[in-house]
Amino acid sequence: MKKLLKYLKGYEKETVLAPLFKMLEALFELFVPLVMAAIIDTGIANQDRGYVFKMSAILIALAMIGLVCSITAQFFAAKAATGFSTKLRHALFEHIQSLSYTEMDTVGTSTLITRMTSDINQVQSGVNLVLRLFLRSPFIVFGAMIMAFTVDVKAAWTFVVTIPLLSIVVFGIMLWTMPMYKKVQAALDKVLGLTRENLTGVRVIRAFNKEEEEWNHFQKENETLTDLQKFVGRISGLMNPVTYVIVNCAIVVLLYTGAIRVDFGVLTQGQVVALVNYMSQILVELVKLANLIITVTKAIACGNRIQNVMEMENSLIGGVQDVAGECSVEFDHVGLTYAGAGQESLTDISFQAKAGQTIGIIGGTGSGKSSLVNLIPRFYDVTKGSVLINGKNVKEYDVEKLREKIGIVPQKAVLFAGTVADNLRWGKEDATEEEMWKALEISQAKEFVEKKDGRLQFKIAQGGKNLSGGQRQRLTIARALTRRPEILILDDSASALDFATDAALRRALREMEDSPIIFIVSQRTSSIQHADQIVVLDDGNVAGLGTHQELLDSCPVYQEIYYSQFEQSKADGDGTAKHNANGRKEAK
Questions:
Q1: pLDDT digits over 251-274, tens only?
Q2: What is the distance between the alpha carbons of residues 537 and 345, in angstroms, rounded to a whole number?
Q3: Judgement on whether residues 240 and 334 belong to the same structural domain of the protein
Q4: DSSP codes of every residue in 167-199
Q5: Rounded mean pLDDT, 385-390
Q6: How confident is the model over 389-419, as pLDDT tens digits?
Q7: Is 550 helix (H, G, I), strand (E, B) or coil?
Q8: Same domain for 202 and 53?
Q9: Residue 540, CA atoms < 13 Å, CB-side half-sphere
Q10: Tell me, what's the pLDDT at 89?
Q11: Sign of CA dihedral 453, 455, 458, 462
C-alpha cells in the first residue's frame, strides 16, 4: 500500500491543507466547552443577559468558522483523493495492458475488474478519510484531555484512564478485522467472476436448461460472501457499544467526582459541564476514529491487492531489433506449456512459411490451432524450440514493432462502439478512406457497408450488436487488412460466412498485391484446401503436413475431417454432392 502513495504526487498542497483546516476546526471546537462554562458560571449565575448574548455570539462565530474550515478541508481532501484514484486507475490500466496473456490467464479477468473498480474505490475512500480525520480525531482526543487538566487536575485523571482503554478496544478490533477484509474481497472476486461467467454464457445456460443449477451455484458463493461480511460486521459492530459503555462510565465517574467537588466549592457547575462536554467530544471523535480505522483497514487490504497486480512483471521480455527483410515464418521444434498446465499443449512443431504463401491449419477442437498462431505475435512464448521470423527468433524483436507487421483476426469477432471508420483505424491510425474501402472490398464487407446509413460513418453498437455474425467477422478481417500486414492470421474468422462469401474472400486474399504470408485456421477443409501447405494438428502434435491432395492420400486425421464434412454436405444439393463425389473418388 505504501508504494501506491506515490500517486499523490502533484497533490502535496491538498494533502497539507486538508488536515490543516481540519485541525483549525478542531481547535475552535475545543474552545466551545470553555465558553459554555463561562455562560453558566458568569452569565446564568449572575443573571447577566448581556454576557450570555455576547458569549452566545462567540459560540455562533466559532461554529461558523468551524463550518468554513470543515468545508475547505473536505474540498481539498476530496480533490486529493479523487486525483489519487484517477492516477492510480490510469496506472493500473496501463500496467494491465502491458501484461502478457500468461499473466492475465493466471490472475483472471474478474479479479482484474475488481481491482480496477471496487478496490480503487475503497482506497479512494480511505485516502479521503485519512486526510480529514487521521490528525483531527487524535488531536481532539488528546486536546480534550489537556483542556480537562486546565479545568481540574483530579477530575482529568478520568480521561487518562479512559483514553487508553478506548485505544485498546479500537486498535484491537482493527487488528482482528484487517485479515478478514482480505477474505471478503477474495470472496467478492469469486462472486464477480461467477456473475460475469453467467452473463456472458447466458445463451448456453438457457439452451441446456441450467438456470436452476447456476442459480444454486451463485447463491452458494453469494452466501459465503454474505456470511464473511456478517462475521466481520459483527466484530466491527462491537466497537460502538463497547466505546459507548466505556465513555458513559467515565461520564458517570466525572459527574460523581464533579458533584462532590462542586459541593466542596473546588469546582463550579460550569466546569463540570465543560468536563462532560470534553468527554462527549472524545466519544464522538473515537466513534469517528473507529469508522476511520474500519475504512482504512479495508483500504489497506484493497491497496495491497492492487499493489500485488502492479508488482506483476511481464513474462515477455522484448528485444530491440526491427523486423526487416523478406518475410518468412519458421517453427523450429516448438513446444508450448501454459502456466500451471500439467502437460504440453503443443509438442515438437516444425514447418516453414515463405512470403506469399498461404498456410492452412486444421484439427479437432482443442488440438492447439489457436495456440500455434498465438506464438507468432508473441501472445505467448514458446517453452521449447523457437519461432523464427525472417530467420531471427521472435524474442529478439521489439514486441511493438513485431506486432505492427502482423494482422490478427481472433476467433471471436470483437468490434468497439463507434463508426465503421473508427473500428478500421484500429488497424492503422492514419488510414485513408481509399485504404479502408480497399480493405472492405477484400474482406467482402464493402457491399453491406455501402448500404448502411453514413457508410464509413455508420455507428456500430458496443460489441457490434447491431450487425450480424458474418458482418462482424468481415469487418474484423477488414480491420486487420487496413494495416496491410506482412503476416495475416485468420483464426477461424470466417466460420459465420456462407460458402460463397468464404470462397470469394479466399480468392481476394490470394490476389492481394502485397502478398503477405496468410495463416488460415479453420474447421472447414473447403477453407484451406487451396493453401500452399496445410498443417494438421492432433492433440498438440503435427499429424500431417502437405497439400490438400497429399494429405487426402496419406493423413488419416485429415481424411476423417474431410470425409465427415463431405458426407454432411450431401444434403446441400446435387451440385455440391457431385463435386464432393468427384473429390472422394480422386482421393480413393
A1: 888 888 888 888 887 888 888 888
A2: 11
A3: no
A4: HHHHHHHHHHHHHHHHHHHHHHHHHHHHHHHHH
A5: 89
A6: 888 888 888 888 888 888 888 888 888 888 8
A7: helix
A8: yes
A9: 13
A10: 92
A11: positive
What average pLDDT does this structure show over 506-530?
85
Residue with cell 482443442: 366
Q: Which of 76-85, 199-208, 299-308 has the highest mean pLDDT?
A: 76-85
Residue 51 lies in domain: 2-310
Looking at the structure of the chain, the number of domains it has is 2
pLDDT tens digit sequence for 556-572: 988 888 888 776 444 34
The size of the chain, in residues, is 588
Domain match, 152 and 191 both: yes
Question: CB-based burial of residue 324 (10 Å sphere; 0-12 exposed, 13-18 middle, 19+ buried)?
Answer: exposed
Q: For 118, which DSSP code?
A: I
DSSP letters spanning 58-87: HHHHHHHHHHHHHHHHHHHHHHHHHHHHHH
**Within this chain, do residues 391 and 247 fall inside the same structural domain, yes or no?**
no
Q: What are the φ and ψ backbone dihedral angles of 339, each rounded to 5 degrees?
A: -60, 125
The candidate with the shortest Cα–Cα distance to 448, out of 526, 520, 501, is: 501
Helix (H, G, I), strand (E, B) or coil at 408: strand
Which residue, among 404, 403, 395, 376, has the nearest Cα to 320 in the 3D structure? Answer: 395
What is the spatial distance between Cα 82 and Cα 71, in angstroms, rounded to a whole number?
16
Looking up residue 556, the CATH number of its domain turns out to be: 3.40.50.300
Q: Please, what is the Cα angle at 498 between 522 and 555, to 5 degrees?
A: 30
pTM above 0.90, yes or no: no
Residues 299 and 390 in one domain: no
Residues 363 and 288 in one domain: no
Instruction: Give the distance from CA 383 to its chain's centroid.
Output: 28
Looking at residue 173, which CATH number applies to its domain?
1.20.1560.10
Interval 362-386 mean pLDDT: 88
Do 227 and 278 sit in the same domain of this protein?
yes
Residue 354: strand pairing partners? 328
Mean pLDDT check: name the lowest of 127-131, 268-272, 288-292, 453-457: 288-292
Q: Is the pLDDT of residue 76 over 90?
A: yes
Helix, strand counts (H, E) of the chain: 22, 12
Q: Which residue has the cell 502478457?
A: 100
The residues with which 406 forms a beta bridge, in sequence order, are 487
For residue 583, is pLDDT > 50? no
CA distance 52 to 39: 6
